[in-house]
Amino acid sequence: MCGIIGYTGPLPANGILLDGLKRLEYRGYDSAGMAVMDGSRMKVVKRAGRVGLLEDLVGGLMGHVGIAHTRWATHGGVTDANAHPHTSCDGMIAIVHNGILENSEELREELIGRGHRFTSETDSEIIAHVLEEELKGVEKEELVAALLRTVRRLEGSFAFLAISPLLGDVILAARKDSPMVVGVLPDAKIPASDVLSFLKWTDDAYFMENESVALMTPVDIEAWLFDGTPLDVRPVKVAVEVKGEYGGGDVHHTLKEIREQPMAVRRALEQDGELLSELAGLMREADRVYAVGAGTSYHAALVARYMFAGIAGLEVQPVLASEHRLFSGWIGDGSLVMAISQSGETADVLEAVRVAKARGAKIVAIVNMPRSSLERMSHASVNIRAGPEVGVAATKSFTAQLAVLAALAYHVAGRPIDLDGERVGSLIEDVLAQEGSIERMVEGIKDGRDVYLVGRGMHYPIALEGALKMKELAYIHAEGMAAGELKHGTLALIEGGTPVILLNPSDDTYKETLSNGEEMKARGAFIMGISDRSSDLYDVHIELPRTRGYETPMVEVVPLQLMAYYTALLRGAEIDKPRNLAKSVTVK
Ligand code: F6R
To answer: Is residue 294 in contact with ligand 1, taking CB distance under 6 Å?
Structure first.
């Protein structure tokens, strides 16, 4: 979940690395650091806290080769010492690492036994010490062998970069199950965790193969698989999808991305019909279809179950990626796994896909980041085309996922897509037009301890998604409930003034949900109704435009996102980077 970046080239490295770190900060933001080399001298600065804290410190780091890191703590607390880069005992090697080493305890003991001194509690520091042993006394032509010996000693997931005054302008890179892509300019190379960190400089990118190492100088990249096979290094143009505006502006990224949803849905529905038909064919042929995802993407999988059942009569089994083991036993060569992920880098999703693939399943990825690890592991993939999503909370990627899943369901059914991008976009615009009144409305929940979000049928997963937004953005405990389940327990918690958000569009769930609302109201709940129909039941009514069928989930989630956003704003929460979270969860 950490973000790493390096630079070797003709310009001062500190500015480029700092700029890249700011763009990577969504991946982790509890500490940051940088190492820059000037000839035979290497200087390291690192700090617990946000990247912004580094700004004053890196001015003195002179040199044209460097590496930098933004951390999301896994091993070891949030301290200056645990921040990256980490160095070898002699201070001659600096590394930055993203991932988790699974054999860190054994290696640490071994290394300490041989006299290595550790200055942090992290697993990552081990890499600096292993490299120190492997690079000792090696000539330039033996460098690759030494790097390969290093990675073979490491277990777990890693993407790391290393520099050393002993290596001149060379950056060493390695990746296994954690992402690494290199920005390629004729006279500079910028290896990093994602393309957003270097897009300002180049859109030529070399995506490192999984289980490979690379050596790069300003003018060249050479790469090998872990077994020593040399690789053909071919940079590609980064797809236009990631080139959207991601620079900032004066509102939060999260709000900007909520507001971008009309455009995101329109673009998501502009898909290659042949590709969707091909995927639909695979789904029809499969014995079983699973939809795997985590967090918000799992909620998209839950909605997909209703969409595929309702549109195509196809049973899709949603699977939480981190719980895939329960299902793995049933997966075989007749199975199809739809892996849904904004980033395409979520470790739990990649693991579930690896297992399913090994058991012979066909893998179809529904992703936002082109050329992500997931896309490259899959037999086929659809890009949801939402554009870069920088706010840690998923918003526009969710609505775009729903649009693509619905379109795919229509292809499976062999029917024309009964979903028009222009129309759904303008329905979402109708909701966005109520932003001001939603902002005023959340005054009523901002000081609350709990919020219940209640819906039936496909509105239930939307209630779950709305609750997730409220938790991660506003830090308020929120529970998404299936309306019919309330009386089986949770109703006991409803008392005078308990805020309840009732998802109640006028479809076949309407009447039953309304009577569940009555049951809560009778116990004193404060009901905020989200519906195209008004009712005396609602203490507050957020009016939805009239929607049809599978348009509804894409539209009704928008007021929930806005409610969470404005509640967070009133509570002074860190909106784009909620505490303890990271955008791309690359650890299991
Ligand atoms: C919630 C959120 C997370 C992600 C989850 C999966 O707002 O952003 O729950 O949805 O970490 O991420 P992806 O979709 O990148 O696999």
So the answer is: yes
